[in-house]
């Protein structure tokens, strides 16, 4: 198994990307990681931090796609960027999966137009594993398609269901449509049309789900357009951070509260782990011909290692072929 990694994408590149890659090599059954980026910067970073690039090959390129760049720069303005070269290597078969913490729009364009869609997929979507009060669920789309037709939303439910069955091993996963009410008559015309299509789809559709239900884990797959899904994702992360900071401040207020903390520390640590987005590291691009993983832009070493873990799961479960088989049906 070979994983191609964009060494220059994200806020903490290349140091945390290198460290995360080394952690992944130690933990998972990976034969080689191909780091794509400025060879001099990568080698200097490794040397300055006493990191041995074992089982790592560096593929030199001269440019980087920044977060403010146009998504199409991966095709036109910056063809020798780490992301563009990484996608081409994936397309040529030099590696089995591609992982990047870079520009989401550029990753979407690269995955769609360089890696290309699986036959029968209308629109690829970004799918993120999210924590809940019960068990993790899948949220899609998280930003690839700001506007969606009803048929896209319906197919997102199928792709998400296949992922949860094969990667997370959920038996007959439930699928819900994000909406401003649970009634079938609620929502925009597109959402109402999607509801009608999803009722007849070959997966376990349970209807609409309101935002307040999502954190309770009422559905295994939550379907939304990319605009709505990204808002849910970012709000989820923000609220979790506010709550954890609030709990910390409450227990550190005075000596008595600090003593009280000792009695509940284990439970709080469990809750912190349960709602830690770093456990999954990023999101998968579902619907393209090869595994593409979008790591968090602010990923540290552990987060990036877990993004690579998603690539490993993708490959080990042969998910691409399973999606192709379901679409043929």
Concise overview:
With 329 residues, the chain is an alpha/beta fold.
What are its keywords?
single chain; 329 residues; alpha/beta; eleven-stranded mixed sheet; 11 strands
State the share of residues found in helices, binned by percent.
40-55%
Number of helices: 10
Query: In percent terms, what proportion of residues is strand?
Result: 15-25%
Structural class: alpha/beta
SSE pattern: EHEHEHEHEEHEHEEHHEEHH
- Major sheet size, sense and barrel closure: 11 strands, mixed
Topology:
Layout: E1 2-6, H1 15-27, E2 32-37, H2 39-48, E3 56-60, H3 82-92, E4 97-100, H4 104-115, E5 125-130, E6 137-140, H5 150-166, E7 174-178, H6 189-199, E8 204-209, E9 221-223, H7 226-251, H8 255-274, E10 282-286, E11 292-295, H9 301-316, H10 319-328
Parallel strand pairs: 1-2, 1-4, 2-3, 4-11, 6-9, 7-8, 7-9
Antiparallel strand pairs: 5-6, 5-10, 10-11
Helix pairs in contact: 1-9, 3-4, 5-6, 5-10
Task: Explain the overall architecture.
The protein is α/β, with parallel strands linked by helices. It is 44% helix and 16% strand. It has helices spanning 15-27, 39-48, 82-92, 104-115, 150-166, 189-199, 226-251, 255-274, 301-316, 319-328, and strands spanning 2-6, 32-37, 56-60, 97-100, 125-130, 137-140, 174-178, 204-209, 221-223, 282-286, 292-295. Strands 3-2-1-4-11-10-5-6-9-7-8 form an 11-stranded mixed β-sheet, with helices on both faces. The model has no long low-confidence stretch (mean pLDDT 93).
